[in-house]
Amino acid sequence: MNWGRKKAIVFTFKRGIHPNEQKQFTENVPINTLLPPAGCDIVFPLLMHMGATCQPLVERGQKVLLGEKIGDSDAKISAPVHSSVSGTVKDIRPHLTIAGTIVNSIVIENDGEFVEHECIKPRENYEDLTREEILKIIREAGIVGLGGAGFPTHVKLSPPPDKKIHTVIVNGCECEPYLTTDNRIMIEESARIVAGLKIILKVIQTARGIIAIEDNKPEAIVHLKEYCANIPDIKVAVVRTKYPQGCEKQLVAAITRKEVPSGGIPIDVGCLVHNVDTVIAIHRSIVRGRPLMRKVVTLTGGAIRNPGNYKMRIGTLLSDLVEMSGGFKSNPAKIVVGGPMMGTAIFDTDVPIVKTTEGVIFMTEEESFIPPERNCIRCGHCVECCPSGLIPTELNADILKEDGEAFVRHSGLDCIECGSCSYICPAKRRLSQAIRTIRRVELAKLKAGAR
Length: 451
Prior knowledge:
With 451 residues, the protein is an alpha/beta fold. The chain has 14 helices and 18 strands.
C-alpha cells in the first residue's frame, strides 16, 4: 500500500447503503462520567463475552473492592469479570441481561466509596514487558472486543502460527445510525488509541497499524493524524461513509482489497480488527494497571431528556442510568440496544450495562414506526446492496418453505445480519429478521454436527 501519495485515498467496499445517520443528537456532546450512587445494586452477568461462562469467585455477604476479580473460567475462550465498585455481595442469582438472556449474575450493593483493590497499580516500565506478559495482563484485565462481538482480546491477539498477520486495523468507523461513542473517544482520547496500538504492534511484530475512520468524522481524523504523524508503522486511513463499513469483513476488504473467504475470519487474510475502545482498554490495563470496569455508551433518541455519550461503570442498571442522565421527556415507544440496524429491542430497563453495550436508543412513536410488510415487487434492491453478495429474496424463499438445507446451500450462513436488505426494501419485507432467526438455528445445527 502506497502511503506516500499526496492525494488523500478514501477506501470503501462493494455495495452497502446510506441510512439516515441520526447522529445529530450526540455527535458534538463530550463524554460525561456518571457514577452510580451509594446503595444501588450493580449487576455483573458472568457471561459478558463470547465463550465460556465464568464461575463466581465471591460469596454472598463478602466485601469486594473496585477492580477485584469476581468471576473467571479455566476455558481458553473466556474472560474474567471484575467489580466496577466497592461494596458487598448481595446475591448471586440468574438475572435478565441487556441481550435478553438469563445469565447467572453477581449483585453487589455499591457503598459509593469506590475503594480500589491492591491489584490496580500503574506500571512505569511497561515498555519492557514481553509479548507473553502483555497477553497475560490483557487476559487478566478481562478485555474483550468492545465493538459488540465480545471475543476475548487475548485470544484474538494469539493467532495460530500458520496465520501471519500483516495488518492490524483499528475500527473507528461507527457506521450504525445514532451511535457516537467511538467518534467522541477518538476526539477525546486520540493519544491513548495510538499508544494502545503501539502495544498491540509489540505483540504482533509482523504487522503495521491502520486506524480506519469514516470521512464523516473530520475532527477525529485530524486528531489521530496529528498523533500518528511521526510513527512509520501507524497510519490513518479515511474510509467512505457507508453502512456497514464497520463490519470486520467489509472493513478488511476496504483497507486491503482482500476478501475474507466464506466461513472465514480476518486472520485468514492476515488481518486483525480491534474497536477503538478495545485499544484504549488495552492501554489502560498495561499502563495504568486497570481491568475493564467502565464503558462509554450513547444514550440517545427522541424520548430521552438529555441525549449524550456517558462513561459509566459496567454492571450499572439501565434504569439507574436513565435517572442519572435526567430521565425521559416522553415515554419511549421502543427501546433498542445497539444501533437501529443490528440492535435488539428490549422490554425491561432493569438490565445491566455490560462490556459490549455501545448504545441505547429510546425511540418516540414516530422514530419507531415501521410500515406494514407487503409482497415482494422483484425490484432487486436488496441484491444490489447486500455487502456479502447474497440474494436475500432467494434466502427469504428458502425460509418461507422452511428449507434450512437450501438456506445453507445458498450461502445464508455468510449473512452478517446488517439489516441493509430490510432497510432498502420498498415493500418493507422483514428479510433480515427472518434470516437472523433461521441462521441461528442452522448455526446451532452446524455446531452440534447435524449439518
